[in-house]
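Encode chain A's predicted structure.
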Amino acid sequence: MEGAEVLLQLAIILAAARIAGEIVMHLGAPSVIGELLVGVVLGPSQLGWIHPNDFLRLLADIGIILLLFQVGLETNIRRLTAAGTEASVVALGGVVFPMLGSYFLCREVFEMPVLVSLFVGGAMTATSIGVTVRILKDVGRQNSREGQVVLGAAVLDDILGVLILAFLFQMSIAHEVGYGVLLNLVAFIGLFFVISPIVAELISSVLSRYGHITELPGLVATLIVSLVLFFAWVAHAVGAPELLGGFVVGLALSRRFFLPFGAKMAPDVAFTDQVRSEMGPIVQLFTPIFFVGVGLSLDLRIVNWESPFVWMFSLSLAVVAIAGKVMAGHLLFREPRLVRQAIGMAMVPRAEVGLVFAELGRVAGVLEGEVYAAVVLVIVYTTAFSTFWIKLFYRRYGESEALKDSD
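Encoded structure for chain A:
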């Protein structure tokens, strides 16, 4: 493929993703849905104008690494501790119930291989904190009791989800489920969590002290991108997914990151805000390419829509995915029923983290064909419609005494 043609494709992807994202957000759904639909329309499923190629895959890989960097940067661990035990209970339930339920569905009902069942279950554990925050803000409940529990639980869900993803990715490489894979991953993550805050502190100290000397703009963004890509290379070198490197760098640079020594090591507030400000446009440039790429990888024409399997699997998986998160909210037995229901419903959207699971499963050769398409459709459904059913819930029950008391 000629370079000029690739440039034209990239121009179309960026412009179409932006326009579709704006339209979808105006309709009340997350922009990621619009970006995914752009890939479906432009790709082999519909028009066939653009097909995945090595250059677009490379840009999409950078996009997913930077996306997980942003997830880590926005991870507020202090919010989790502030929400207390309830957030931890909901988060753990929101991981265990959907994963076990989805695994049982795939393995016992549809007789899929173990690794496929695990990847599907892992994709269903995700909760998109970005989508959840926006929904809670739209209904004015971000500062309510249930809002704080949900946001704290979503933080832990993100962390657990990334770790589960790293573990499954290593298993797909090793083609086995074993303790050796788990021990290697635990050692790697432990090393990262020791080294990354130290590196982040050194970089923030140097930039804070000497950054004003340079006359060239973009010093912070340049060094942070270099750091993210370096840690992504390190992650790949030890057999983990590259995105784990981006995640831990973002987590280390977050002003709310802490370990036993983290409060002293964490970068100052001003530097973290500067990182967020300068990295924002870069992340927003690359991440739509990843989501469009997911749509491009979906060839819906090869899916046999007349097959009972497609409908039975996708619908039953959607039920398990939604029920698992709602059940997690109902673990808080001391809370009123409506509060528990609100918490469970707000944990349902999967969005970007779920799509990351699905895409890595496809790249690893674990999720293919109708199974991959069904997983993506369930993620889209739980993301696109969560906004509407949660708003409907608060419109009907928002004035109840139980929810008023949680303000």
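Confidence is low (pLDDT under 50) at residues 257-266.
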